[in-house]
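re: ur question from yesterday

yeah so i grabbed the chain u mentioned. its 135 aa long if i counted rite. heres the sequnce exactly as i have it in my notes:
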Amino acid sequence: MEIPVTPDVTNHMGTVHAGALFTAADIAGAAAFVGAAAARLDTIARLVLRGADASYRKPALGRIRAVATVDERELRTILAADHDERFELSGKALLLDDADVVVAKFTFDYTDAARTHPPAPPGRGTLSACCTCGS
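ran it thru and got these structure tokens back, copy pasting raw so excuse formatting
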């Protein structure tokens, strides 16, 4: 996930706005989950961000890249579920500038539900990745 250099995402100091950094980290975290769970994505009822922690390290100047991961051990447990159950999942995101300097770090706490019954019929989404509302 990248934040391009545009006036729309900068603040009054000319740096990328903290809200844009958080949004990029959130999107990267959801994408990391979807990529890591792709083989069994139809067994995931939803993914909801329950909490987050942000650490802004340096002024975010220029193009910013967000790279995220999810906890592999927790993900294996979720994907191995043999009954409907709610799970917790941790994620991390780094935001880097063009020189690969870390400008911000985020940690995420997700909650999700794994299911063993068939996925919803076509036309109904099987994964929800909204920040707090789960829609």
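noticed a couple things. Confidence is low (pLDDT under 50) at residues 124-135. also Strands lie at 2-3, 44-56, 64-70, 85-96, 102-114.
anyway ttyl
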